[in-house]
Amino acid sequence: HFCTSFYNNAKRTLIKHYYSGMADDDANAMMRNMSKAATASNLPRATRVKNKSAAAIQITAEQIVREAKERQDDTYIAPRQKITNNEELYEYRLKKRKEFEDVIRRTYWDSKVWTRYAQWEEGQGDFARARSVWERALDQNYKEVPVWINYAEMEMRAGFVNHARNVWDRACSLLPRHDVLWYKFTHMEETMGEIAACRNVFEKWMKWEPSELAWNAFVNFEMRYKEYDRVRDVYQRYAQVHPSTRVFGKWAKFEQYQKHDNENCRKVFEAGIEMLSEEEDVDDLYVQYAKFEEKNHEYERARGIYKYALTALPKSMHDSIRKAMMTFEKQFGDSKGIENAVVEKRRHEYEILVEKEPMNYDHWFAFAKLEEENGEWDKVREVYERAIGNKPPANEKRYWRRYVYLWINYFLFEELDAKDYDRAREVMRELLKLVPHNEFSFSKVWIMAAKFELRRKKLDAFRKIMGLAIGLAPKPKIFDAYIEVESQLGNVDRCRSLYEKSLELNPRDCESWVKYAELEKDLGETERGRAIFEMAIEQPALDMPESLWKAYIDFEISIGNRVEARALYERLLEKTEHVKVWMSFAKFENKIVLPPPEDDEEWDEDEETEAERRKREEAHVKKTPTESKEAREQNARRVFERALEALKTNQPDAKEERVMLLEAWKVFEENASGTSNEKKELIDAVDKKMPKRVKRKRPMYTEDGEDAGTEEYYDYVFPEEAGAKPNLKLLEAAYAWKKQKQMETSS
């Protein structure tokens, strides 16, 4: 629309201007008489899109770009200009120089413009003008390295060697830190065959202490011309400027393969190790040194280098040394050398573990065991000393248990392996001083310390340590160990004194009462033993009274005193009517009680054969009719009846205990003597007393007392419980009805 309006307005203006010479009336009349077709625009009318839906064939942007690329015309190539005479050439050169100068005035900082200008002058063969352009470019910015390179290469292409040498020299003097200039300079001199000049360039370059690549280039230059003495001199300066394992390794390889001078090679390695002792990668130099000795078949030297490296280097560098040493020992060492290498490797692993977790005593145990297996006592002691230096963080016994075992292992090592008894005694003394006995103590430590003195045949020292242990930590284990030794020595009075002291400190300890009584029994002092048991059961508080009563009863049984044993059961039933007491009582009544033989003082029950015991039983039954099998079974049956009645009367809710008693009674009747009919009648009588097991429900409640539903449980219904019979019959009827319904459903 804008284009159409613009066209119409322009057309009117032109017509008016054309007819400006006419009279105004004529012009206006002519304008009015012009037809619409004459003034109408020839531009196409804008079409209106009626169907705006997507086309059936779509085209992507990629297709549009590709099609445009395919239809693109070839690149425009300017027509070549043919110059036929000198005047045209002069005009052409003048024109180009003017263009270059104009561009330079606008962008004098762009080195590419200067380069194109100088190269064009070079192409015209006017090297003086080309040099002038290059010099003007360098005056503008001498730090442009490509300008220097192109300038020198132009001189080299033109054959002006001295000019090129002058350019390179100026460039290297002004920009000595750009290695590419030096590389180009040396390459030109070497290509020209000027070896001395090239060496002088390298010498000037090395004064600036360039990178390792520059030194390597110098070394390779001298190597190409086999100037090995000069190579050694270069390496000496190279190592001073860049002291590294890589440099010394290259130097050593040169001495080894080019000069074949092993002594100088060793000196190189030694100088490198001394100079790089504080570097992080010095371990690599040690490995290279050892491998050099391996190639020269100096295996002992190589092994010595590895061992020295393990002692001289910090532990963080030992991994590579040990790995190389392991490989060396597998190739050239014997079995002992391989074992030493393995030990070194494992030692390093444990060092890392104990350094990371010093309070993990398991690592110290494994570390110490490794050193003990290796057999170097000094290293074993060093490990133990380092281990016991890690004291637990708090005075709590759970933290000290593993720590104390470190001391114990240290003590056992000194006594059994090292045979250093004085040192073992000192270790145990230090441990006893270290343990806070006011808060907790360790009976094992006191006992081991005392028995060590006993093994050294120092009885007084043993008793002194035991007395100190009783004063600081009066534990039952200490008393037991002390009494055991004194009883073996035959000091009965001292044993009694120790038992009395133990019971005075802890009268609740039933085990001590029992052992004290058994001591008197073994000594034949039956009355003293019985008196000790009587004192024990009269104590107001005991830790395990059931074991004390059992020991007392077994004591009476062992001496063949059934009457006293039965009386003890009766006294025990007055204190408790537990079902197990009744069952034990019945079992006691069913068992024969044999007194020890009076005429044989050396009699031992454990050594008695079955035939000898049967013979003694027959003799005892003949002598004592109450010990017959029928009498014993009748007594046991009466005990079962009493027990059942007592549980029914005194503990009506203890139904499971009554079931246990009845089951034990049934087993007893099954094993009892008599005819089969008699046994059947007795078993049936017990079976009639057996309860029935039924399933019941009871309410459940939460902690707040709210109703939580019901739960099922099993209950026992005994025959004598009359109130339970109707319920039982009802349950039986319900069960039968349910079973009948299930059968009908399945059919």
Structure description:
It is elongated and about 165 Å long. The chain has 37 helices and 2 strands. Helices cover 71% and strands 3% of the residues. The longest helix is centred in the C-terminal third of the chain and has 23 residues, at 724-746. The chain is mainly alpha-helical. A two-stranded antiparallel sheet has the order 1-2. A hairpin with a 5-residue loop joins β1 and β2.
What are the main properties of this structure?
3% strand, single chain, 71% helix, mainly alpha, 747 residues, two-stranded antiparallel sheet, elongated
User: Strand count, sense and closure of the main sheet?
Assistant: 2 strands, antiparallel
Beta-strand content bin: under 5%
Low-confidence stretches: 14-27, 33-41
The shape is elongated
Number of strands: 2
Report strand order across the widest sheet: 1-2
Could you give the distance between the termini?
Answer: 98 Å
DSSP helical segment count? 37
Radius of gyration: 58 Å
The class by helix and strand makeup works out as: mainly alpha
Into which percent range does the helicity of residues fall?
over 70%
